[in-house]
Structures are given as C-alpha cells and as structure tokens.
Amino acid sequence: MPDERLYERIYATVRQIPAGKVATYGQVAHLAGLPGRARQIGYALFRVAPGSEIPWQRVVNARGEISESPHRLGNDDYQRTLLVAEGVIFNQQGQIDLAVYRWQPASAPPSAESE
C-alpha cells in the first residue's frame, strides 16, 4: 500500500500547476521533495480518477509527450483532449513545446527541469 502522505505531497504539487501549463514528472518529483523519483509521480497520478480535482493531465514526460500506457484504458487520448482544451498545442509529433508551456513556479530552482 502506498504512503498516502507521500501521495498527498505529490497531489499538492500537481494542484499548483495552472491551466494551460504543464510540468514534467521529474519536475513534480523535485518540487515535491522527491528528486529522482519521477516514476513514483507516475504511479501516484495513475491512481487519480478522471474528473478528479487533481489536474493529473498537466504532467507529461521530459520530452513534452504524454506517457502512454495500455493500462489507462483510453485516458491517453483524454489527457491530450484536456490539455488542448486548456490551450496547450501539440506539434505533429505529439509533443508540447516545454519552452512555451512548462510551468515555472516562482520558487522553483532552475534544476527542476529534469525528469
């Protein structure tokens, strides 16, 4: 069973990402005090139900792509739909320009860009 306090730290960080912006798994890990644990962010967000108040859709991989999973049962397309509705643009390769759309919180150190 996952540590609920740890997951709440992750969710609290993700809740700060504004509409129209994205963060990488690694960036969320760093900001949540879990550097190097990007996969843990993915595990935590996988548990979030679509329609939750946690904006899980705003977290993408370090390449600016949606990390697809056969276990999500169609949520990969749903994630893209939600981001596009927020004004995020994908290129023809399915990538988001992180130089444009990456969330940069005022208190984040420059190294928060790693995955």
From TrEMBL:
Its GO biological process terms?
Answer: DNA repair; methylation
Give any GO molecular function from the UniProt entry: methyltransferase activity
Q: Membrane-spanning regions, if any?
A: none
UniProt keyword Transferase present: yes
Under Gene3D superfamilies, the record lists: Winged helix-like DNA-binding domain superfamily/Winged helix DNA-binding domain (1.10.10.10)
- Which InterPro entries does the protein's record reference? ATL_DNA_repair (IPR052520), MethylDNA_cys_MeTrfase_DNA-bd (IPR014048), MethylDNA_cys_MeTrfase_DNAb (IPR036217), WH-like_DNA-bd_sf (IPR036388)
Give all residue intervals belonging to the Methylated-DNA-[protein]-cysteine S-methyltransferase DNA binding domain: 7-88
The alphabetical list of record keywords is: DNA damage, Methyltransferase, Transferase
- Work out whether the entry's keyword set contains Phosphoprotein: no
The protein in question is named O-6-alkylguanine-DNA:cysteine-protein methyltransferase
Q: Which organism is it from?
A: Gloeobacter kilaueensis (strain ATCC BAA-2537 / CCAP 1431/1 / ULC 316 / JS1)
